[in-house]
Amino acid sequence: xxxxxxxxxxxxxxxxxxxxYSALGDLDEAFRNLMRTAKIHSWPAHIKYTPVxxxxxxxPRFQEFCGMVGLPPSLGEPRG
Length: 80
Fold this sequence. Notes:
With 80 residues, the chain is mostly helical. Helix content is 57%, strand content 0%. It has helices at residues 2-5, 10-24, 27-39, 54-58, 61-69.
């Protein structure tokens, strides 16, 4: 993780940490980075469908994120 924390481009750093903390199940850190990606306009466009983010989508903070970036909050989980 230190490699990604040292990344100079904030968008790359925040996205990488978002992905890694989501995969590790550390939702507090994942949300900290997700909210940062929203503020710098570099959030992952596939956030509502990528499996690694499924736990984020179940958290009430995800609705706040959706409001920040203009996503409809209830597209639901993909089927399959």
